Amino acid sequence: MSDSGGGRLVDGYRLVVFDLDGVIYLIDRPIPGAVEAVGRLRAGGHLVAYATNNASRRSSEVADLLTGMGVSARPEEVLTSAAAAAEVLRDRFPADAAVLVVGADALRAELRAVGLRPVSRADEAPVAVVQGYGPQVGWADLAEAAVAVRAGATWVATNTDRTLPSPRGPLPGNGALVAALRTALDRDPDLVVGKPEPALFATAARRAEGAGCLVVGDRLDTDIEGACRAGLPSLLVLTGVSGAADLLVAPPYARPTYVAVDLAGLFDSGAVVRVPGEAVTGGWSVAVRDDALEVSGAGRPLDALAALCAVAWSTTETAQRPVRAASPAAERALRDLGLFD
Fold first, then answer.
1. Are 282 and 303 in contact (CB under 8 A)?
2. What is the pLDDT of residues 39-51, one digit of tens each?
3. NCBIfam families annotated for this entry (predicted)?
4. Are 255 and 275 in contact (CB under 8 A)?
5. Could you count the other beta carbons within 10 Å of the beta carbon of residue 119?
6. Are the C-beta atoms of 32 and 230 separated by less than 8 Å?
7. How far apart are CA 42 and CA 47, in angstroms?
8. Which residues are catalytic?
9. pLDDT, position 170
10. Structure confidence at residue 341 (pLDDT)
């Protein structure tokens, strides 16, 4: 299944751009099948890139982390929001300009690499504040940033992910810390660099030289929305943050082209589906009854999801409707999709 007609999804694309957290790994462990998927892509002559909003590591560090997990990666294949933010600031301010950093050492290193001077206090007269994820960020960092922004510093956020995935479930992401500063300042950042802004994906897509680029992500509000903004097809995998229930209420600007349970969908046409399908798809029928989405029939769970998307997305109403099963097979499929308690 691909834009080029039948066969494997991946056969329609020269370049595959992966998100990392929730797609390739969870914190420091590869997601099952990720090592094999990247290996198969390279063996088949496909280009691979990685685009991450996590600003706590430099590209070289991410490449080393991936390689240590058995996932082949080179630094030039890794696009980070930290590096993108540093480049934006380099283009806006003179060399050696002071930039207050709220984030990890990797973000400071990226600023130094482009000729800017990272600082940690507002009384060092920073021209900008750059805020990225860092596990050690605390109140004192946010306080200095608030003072600097009120004094006129440009406020740049590497990303606004509300959460980041972990083996214990979603944890606060950079967006949660940006929200704290937003509350204190009663204003938004001047610029958000990472996904869902299209810059990371647009940069990666240029490497495909017009031969086709597919974005693979686990979050509708960053990966998939970013791909939509960049005009690129996308595959949502259900190994990270966004699930089937989120997909049914996704706004038009954050809807994927395809959905798969995991990365096997790249290679197995039976493990991926294009969304939306039709209200009657793959043996399933979905109808609205008593303001609920009722599923009847039998078939692949993913086809049921495609049919559900067809009906759920056919209206401008984005409220979550209950999903009901009208057959034993439908109940099993909805359980597999996490849509049936």
1. yes
2. 999 999 999 999 9
3. HAD-SF-IIA (TIGR01460)
4. yes
5. 20
6. no
7. 7
8. 19, 21
9. 87
10. 64
Neighbours of 68 (CB within 10 A): 11
DSSP H or E segment with residue 293: strand 292-297
Give me the sign of the Cα torsion angle 258, 172, 187, 88.
negative
Sole residue written with tokens 């599923």:
295
Please give the domain boundaries of the chain with CATH numbers for all domains: 9-53+196-272 (3.40.50.1000), 82-192 (3.40.50.1000), 277-336 (3.30.300.290)
Say what the alpha-carbon torsion angle 118, 155, 177, 196 is, to the nearest 10 degrees: -110
DSSP state of 164: E
**256 upstream amide cis, omega within 30 of 0:** no
Where helices occur in the chain by DSSP H, the ranges are: 34-43, 59-68, 81-92, 105-113, 139-150, 174-185, 199-205, 225-229, 244-248, 301-312, 328-336
Which 3 state secondary structure label does DSSP give 315? Answer: coil
Q: At what angle do helices 301-312 and 328-336 cross, to 10 degrees?
A: 90
Give 97-150 as a DSSP string. Answer: -EEEEES-HHHHHHHHHTT-EEES-GGG--SEEEE---TT--HHHHHHHHHHHH
* Residue 3 in this model has a pLDDT that exceeds 60: no
